[in-house]
Design goal:
The protein has about 400 residues and is an alpha/beta fold. The chain is built from 21 helices and 11 strands. It is globular and about 75 Å long. It binds zinc ion.
């Protein structure tokens, strides 16, 4: 596998690199951020998501706890009632932030949990105990689901589990097994998903709208359109080149290390960061003015803008951090016309006379305005509709 730092970045996939980084930062800070990459086969969405394992930071857990209990806030059935002294005696250990994958044919027992057969069949001391599944074991980390649209179509039980896990931050999961008491555990897991909306059974928002809305952001992966980038991708995909380049000795882990260090730093910044009130008002006005239905959408706009400003190395949130989030947060939640109208609205009215209407405010706010809205604050202005909203026609222009 190509290491994360070596993956080719171009305009069409830059947003996914950003979202993946933002989600890791947010997870480390204790707040899950659910992201979904949509796009045609071959655009590299799953490659980027899986390669992000390289840059996952370490977390500290109670030694040997399969539920990844935070020593400062244990939550699992074995540790939640222990005293501070008892936990100290157990000790702690550092592990890599978990990254586990659910396949679209997974079973409920694998995902949520099942009876621990090894314990049950132990000759000396047989005992019926629950073995947590992939989701509780990914607590404080990431769960990746490729082809989420197929999973949602064929497995309503697992979809319901995901709805619970992603319903609140943190979410929860129930582990049930006949004859054993039901265990309900807290889970703080960022769900990453990928799908191709042009393949069966179609886009997730049409199969299970509720699940689609649980994703904070959706990134539509564009196709690379430069000859240089395409030939570089071809080179990377050539098997010979891969095996020659990426055996263990040639991977420069110092580059991954630098990214891991940045992530740890950004997570500590995120825990303290906030957004100025006038930007929060701006988001609230977008919600009302455009009749948005989902409160999750504007919550995602807020946390996304803060995270974006942090990974770009700024110490305050700008309006372009907010407008940058509009297509990512709304792609799966509003129809294309509404989104284009919103983007044009932000564009054409300009910031001064637009939704913000600072005209009648006091001088203090005008100072904030000058500081927060530099001339380059409108990146969406130069983007054509076809770059933001991909339709079947724009993706395959030659087919009639
Ligand atoms: Zn525990």
């Amino acid at each position: 596998m190509i290491p994360f730092y070596k993956l080719e970045r171009y305009e069409g996939n830059e947003s996914l690199f950003e979202l993946v980084t933002m989600s890791i930062v947010s997870s480390l800070a204790g707040e899950p951020l659910h992201i979904h990459a949509e796009g045609l086969r071959g655009t590299g969405k799953t490659t980027i998501m899986r390669a992000a394992k390289d840059i996952l930071p370490k977390i500290t857990r109670i030694k040997g706890c399969i539920y990844n209990c935070d020593p400062a806030a244990p939550h699992c059935p074995h540790h939640k009632n222990l005293t501070r002294e008892e936990i100290l005696q157990l000790g702690t250990e550092e592990i890599q932030m978990p990254f586990l994958e659910i396949s679209h044919s997974a079973k409920v027992g694998t995902v949520a949990g099942s009876v621990d057969l090894a314990r049950l069949t132990d000759v000396i001391n047989p005992e019926a105990r629950l073995l947590p599944g992939l989701i509780p074991q990914a607590h404080r980390g990431i769960i990746f689901i490729d082809e989420i649209n197929r999973l949602a179509d064929t497995s309503p039980e697992i979809t319901d589990i995901l709805l619970d896990v992603m319903g609140n931050k943190p979410g929860h999961i129930q582990i049930e097994e006949a004859g054993l008491p039901v265990v309900d555990v807290k889970v703080s897991v960022s769900v990453w998903a990928a799908s191709n909306p042009d393949e069966d059974p179609g886009p997730l928002e049409e199969i299970r709208r509720q699940l689609s809305d649980r994703f904070d952001m959706v990134c539509f992966m564009g196709r690379p359109n430069s000859v240089d980038i395409l030939s570089q991708m071809l080179k990377e995909n050539s098997h010979q080149w891969k095996t020659k380049q990426y055996n263990k000795e040639t991977i420069d882990d110092s580059k991954n290390n630098t990214m891991r260090k940045d992530i740890v730093l950004w997570a500590s910044k995120y825990q303290k960061a906030d957004m100025p009130d006038f930007l929060r008002n701006y988001i609230a006005r977008l919600y009302i003015k455009n009749n948005l239905e989902s409160i999750r959408a504007i919550e995602a706009m807020q946390s996304g803008a803060i995270l974006h400003s942090i990974i770009k190395g700024r110490d305050k949130v700008l309006i372009n951090d907010v407008t940058h989030m509009i297509p990512l947060v709304l792609k799966h939640r509003v129809d294309n016309d509404t989104m284009v109208r919103m983007i044009n609205d932000v564009d054409s009215k300009g910031v001064k006379d637009g939704i913000l209407s600072f005209k009648n405010r006091k001088k203090k706010d005008n100072e904030a305005e000058a500081e927060y809205f530099p001339h380059n604050a409108m990146p969406l202005k130069d983007i054509r509709r076809s770059d933001l909203v991909n339709t079947e026609k724009s993706l395959t222009p030659n087919e009639v």
